[in-house]
Write a structure and sequence with these properties.
Blueprint (H helix, E strand, L loop, with lengths): L9 H18 L3 E8 L2 E9 L12 E2 L3 H15 L9 H4 L10 H5 L25 H5 L16 H15 L3 H13 L16 E3 L6 E3 L9 H4 L2 E2 L1 H13 L7 H7 L8 H6 L1 E3 L4 E5 L2 E10 L2 E8 L4 E7 L7 H15 L15 H4 L3 E5 L2 E7 L5 E5 L7 E5 L5 E3 L8 E6 L5 E6 L2 E4 L23
Antiparallel strand pairs: 1-2, 1-11, 3-6, 4-5, 7-8, 8-9, 9-10, 10-11, 12-13, 12-19, 13-14, 14-15, 15-16, 16-17, 17-18, 18-19
Helix pairs in contact: 1-12, 2-6, 2-7
Length: about 450
C-alpha cells in the first residue's frame, strides 16, 4: 500500500508558525518569511510582518547575501564537470596575474585559499561596486593573510575571484552565465541580480528603541558573485531540492553530494561547534542532525537555507533587517519540528531485481585480523563493509566494470576492494587497499601479512 501525504498535520503547521512568530517578535524584524520543503516540494509557507494586513508571500524578493556564493560554486562545479578545469588547478592557470594565483580552485571554494575576509575599505557591502572596478581593487595590496590551504578563513574576495574565473572561461558576465546555466533550467525566475517588484525594503532596527532606518541597496559590482542576489522563499525552496538531489540539467546528484562534503581544514573551535565548510556550502551539526546549506547577510537583510538530506526536509528563512533574529537557528528549528513531528516514512523494502551469485557468496562475516566485519549487498548494485559491533571503519563501495569495487566514503574513500580467488575459483580473501580480510580470524589458509603462527590459537596452560 502506498501512503501519500498532501501536506503537514495541523499541529505541525502551528508549531512552525509559532517558531517564526517568536523569531519575528523577539528579533524585532519588520518581516520574516519562511518555507519548508519535504519530499521534493514546498509543504508549508509562513510569514510575520509589522505591517498590518500585509504578509509577504513566496514571490516577494529579499536580498540573500552570501547564499549567492552557493550559486557561484555551482557554476564552478559545472566547469569542473565539463573538464574545463580541475579543482586542484591553481587559479593562476586559468586567471593569471591576480596576486592570489597559488590558491587552488578547491581552496577558494572552501575558503581555505589564505585570502582576507573582506576587500579594502570602505566597507564594500554599504558602498557602490563602482569603487572597486578591478580585481586589484577587491584584493588590495596584500591579498593573502594566511598560508594557502592551511586554515579555513571565510573570504568574500575569494568568491569574487571565482566569479571572475567563470567569466573568463565562459566569455560572458557572471550574472548572464548564472541565468542561462542555473536559474532558467531550475525555474528560478524570481532570483535576480537586482530587485524586481514585489520586493522587501532593507531596514536597520535601532538596538535600544523600536525605530528603523532604511539601508542602502548597493550594486556590488565585482563583488556580485559573493553576495549580490535577490530571491524568494519559493525559488530557494526549489534550489534546496536541487542541492539535495541534483538535476542533470545543472549538476548530477554525485556532484552536489561532493559539494556537501567537508572540504576545508577545521580549526579546534569548529570541531567543538560541529561546523565545517564544503565546496560552497556550510555544514553543521545541530541537535544531533547533520545540516547543510548557507546563510547570508547584507545591510538590511538576513537569510538562511538549511537542508537535512537524511530527513528529506529543508527550510528557507528570509528577513529584512540588518541584525535581529538568527535565521540559521530558525531554519534548523523548522527542519527539526517537521522531522520530529512527522518522521520520514521509509520506502518499502523490496528484494533486488537480480543478483550476481559470485558477489552473493561474498556476503557475510569477514575478519581483518581479529576485527569482525559484515559485507552486505546494497540496492544500488554495490556493497557495504562495516564493523559488526562498535565504532570502526566503514564504507559503501560502488562496483567497477572489472568486478572490483571503489570506496565511497570515510577511511576507504577511493580505495580498491577486490575478491582474490584460488586457482579452483574459491574465494581466498578480500584485498582492501592491501588489508587482507579473511573468513576466519587470521585464517592460516589465506596470505595473511606476516604469516600465521603454526601452533595456532591456544590458551594459557
Amino acid at each position: 500500500m502506498t501512503t501519500h501525504q498532501e501536506g503537514l498535520l495541523p499541529a505541525t503547521r502551528r508549531a512552525l508558525l509559532h517558531r517564526v512568530a517568536v523569531a519575528q517578535a523577539e528579533g524585532r524584524t519588520p518581516s520574516l518569511v519562511a518555507a519548508v520543503v519535504r519530499g521534493g516540494r514546498t509543504v508549508w509557507h509562513g510569514a510575520r510582518t509589522s505591517v498590518e494586513g500585509h504578509g509577504p508571500d513566496e514571490n516577494v524578493q529579499y536580498r540573500i547575501g552570501s547564499i549567492t556564493k552557493t550559486f557561484t560554486a555551482v557554476l564552478v562545479m559545472r566547469l569542473r564537470d565539463e573538464r574545463l578545469l580541475d579543482l586542484g588547478d591553481p587559479l593562476e592557470k586559468h586567471l593569471p596575474g591576480t596576486g592570489a594565483g597559488e590558491a587552488t580552485i578547491a581552496e577558494l571554494l572552501a575558503h581555505s585559499g589564505g585570502l582576507a575576509a573582506e576587500s579594502p575599505a570602505p566597507w564594500w557591502e554599504r558602498t557602490p561596486g563602482s569603487l572597486r572596478p578591478e580585481l586589484a581593487d577587491v584584493l588590495g595590496k596584500q591579498p593573502l593573510l594566511h598560508p594557502v590551504g592551511r586554515r579555513h578563513h571565510y573570504s568574500n574576495p575569494g568568491y569574487t575571484l571565482l566569479g571572475a574565473l567563470v567569466e573568463k572561461l565562459r566569455g560572458a558576465p557572471w550574472e548572464d552565465v548564472l541565468r542561462r546555466e542555473v536559474l532558467e533550467p531550475l525555474g528560478l525566475h524570481r532570483t535576480t541580480g537586482r530587485p524586481q517588484a514585489p520586493h522587501a525594503g532593507g531596514w536597520a532596527v535601532h538596538p535600544w528603541a523600536d525605530v528603523m532606518l532604511a539601508e542602502p541597496a548597493e550594486d556590488l559590482g565585482r563583488m556580485a558573485p559573493a553576495g549580490q542576489l535577490w530571491s524568494t522563499t519559493g525559488d530557494l525552496a526549489r534550489f534546496a531540492v536541487f542541492l539535495a538531489r541534483g538535476d542533470d540539467r545543472v549538476l548530477s546528484a554525485e556532484t552536489v553530494r561532493e559539494m556537501r562534503a567537508p572540504a576545508a581544514a577545521a580549526e579546534a573551535a569548529d570541531v567543538l561547534e560541529g561546523t565545517a565548510y564544503g565546496l560552497g556550502l556550510q555544514i553543521q551539526r545541530w541537535d544531533g542532525r547533520l545540516l547543510v546549506g548557507h546563510s547570508g547577510s547584507l545591510p538590511g537583510f538576513l537569510a538562511n537555507l538549511t537542508i537535512s538530506v537524511e530527513d528529506d526536509v529543508a527550510a528557507v528563512v528570509l528577513t529584512n533587517c540588518t541584525s535581529g533574529p538568527l535565521p540559521a537557528g530558525v531554519g534548523a528549528d523548522l527542519v527539526r519540528i517537521v522531522a520530529e513531528a512527522e518522521p520520514r516514512i521509509p520506502e518499502p523494502w523490496r528484494p533486488l531485481p537480480k543478483v550476481d551469485t559470485s558477489v552473493l557468496e561474498l556476503a557475510g562475516q569477514w575478519y581483518w585480523g581479529t576485527h569482525a566485519f559484515a559485507l552486505r549487498l546494497t540496492a544500488d548494485g554495490g556493497v557495504s563493509l562495516e564493523p559488526l559491533s562498535g565504532n570502526g571503519r566503514r564504507s559503501r563501495f560502488r562496483v567497477n566494470a572489472d568486478g572490483t569495487w571503489t570506496g565511497l566514503e570515510g577511511y576507504y574513500a577511493r580505495e580498491s576492494l577486490r575478491a582474490v580467488r584460488r586457482p579452483d575459483g574459491a574465494v581466498s580473501h578480500l584485498d582492501l587497499g592491501s588489508f587482507v580480510f579473511t573468513r576466519q580470524p587470521y585464517d592460516e589458509g589465506a596470505p595473511v601479512p606476516g604469516g600465521v603462527d603454526p601452533e595456532g590459537w591456544r590458551g594459557i596452560g
